[in-house]
Write a structure and sequence with these properties.
Number of helices: 14
Number of strands: 0
Distance between the termini: 14 Å
Largest sheet: none
Order of helices and strands: HHHHHHHHHHHHHH
Length: 297
């Protein structure tokens, strides 16, 4: 069942090019506001413990989902469980078709209409750019980083935790990301540090597995050198993303293929196309490896 759910979700994620923002996504903000408003009802000891609300934010929504999975188990010859797994995994995947976003971005970028590329991206995926850019090199770096980070955190890492611990594990990872991104429950510096350290722990293995998949899907020798030199980096989420970026750069071999392009715009577009190709090949590597694991185990 795991292989079928992963494969079907990846195919739908790739070919679903229409807007997929869901009304239920707004529940994160409402849930956070509810917890903050009801904090005074908690026992005094729990009110003073800084991790109370963050744990409630992440763990309490998992309870009804877990009960639903238990109730559905074995019913309708397993079809109900299969459907729930499919819906929950699709919910964890990104709200934007990354391949389509790259296509739209490159269409505008190739015409030299950088402002249109910026505005369209912000409309489809708000938050890609942290500021309004007139430096198009920085704008392009921000877009490329978003593509890489979103692919990792909302696809590859989600798949890793789904395969390892089922839909509840994938949901826990996504909820933790949402809580850190909103930040309303992590006002104390110590609490924020704990949440980010937990995120780093959850991403330590997936980052290195994706980097190894980059090596298999690209320049293996150059990428493996990067992984070997950075495999024991400090336990930090940002350091993990840096390792991912360096591994992708080594795997793409863009320096050799675009060295003859003196124009920045052409080089940037070629690098982005290389990144898109690398991510697609990495999807194939993950599916093949998962199929082999299921056949062996």
């Amino acid at each position: 069942m795991t292989f079928f759910v992963v494969l079907s979700c990846l195919l739908l994620n790739h070919y679903w090019r229409k807007e997929r923002l869901l009304p239920v996504d707004n529940w994160f903000g409402h849930w956070q506001q509810f917890l903050l408003a009801q904090q005074y009802r908690l026992p005094e000891g729990l009110q003073q413990w800084p991790l109370t609300l963050p744990l409630m934010f992440v763990l309490l929504p998992l309870i009804p989902v877990g009960l639903l999975l238990v109730i559905a188990d074995g019913r309708l010859m397993g079809l109900l469980t299969l459907g729930l797994h499919f819906l929950l995994l699709m919910y964890c995947l990104p709200r934007v078709n990354i391949d389509d976003l790259i296509d739209e971005y490159l269409q505008r970028w190739d015409r030299g209409n950088y402002e249109a590329a910026y505005l369209h991206t912000e409309q489809v995926a708000p938050g890609v750019f942290s500021e309004s850019f007139d430096d198009y090199a920085r704008m392009h770096d921000s877009f490329s980083r978003f593509v890489l980070v979103c692919s990792f955190r909302r696809i590859f890492a989600v798949l890793f935790w789904y395969i390892l611990s089922g839909p509840l594990g994938a949901l826990f990872y996504v909820f933790l990301q949402q809580m850190i991104n909103m930040g309303g429950l992590l006002q104390a510096g110590q609490t924020d540090a704990v949440a980010r350290r937990l995120l780093a722990v959850l991403e330590w293995v997936p980052v290195r597995m994706v980097a190894l998949a980059f090596a298999l899907a690209g320049d293996f020798v150059a990428t493996f050198k990067v992984i070997k030199s950075r495999i024991l980096d400090q336990l930090d989420a940002d350091a993990g993303l840096d390792l991912l970026k360096d591994s992708a750069t080594a795997a793409m071999m863009t320096s050799e293929r675009t060295a003859h392009d003196t124009d920045f715009s052409a080089r940037a577009a070629a690098e982005l196309r290389e990144l898109r190709g690398l991510l697609m090949r990495t999807h194939v590597v993950w599916v093949v490896v998962l199929a082999l694991i299921i056949l062996v185990v």
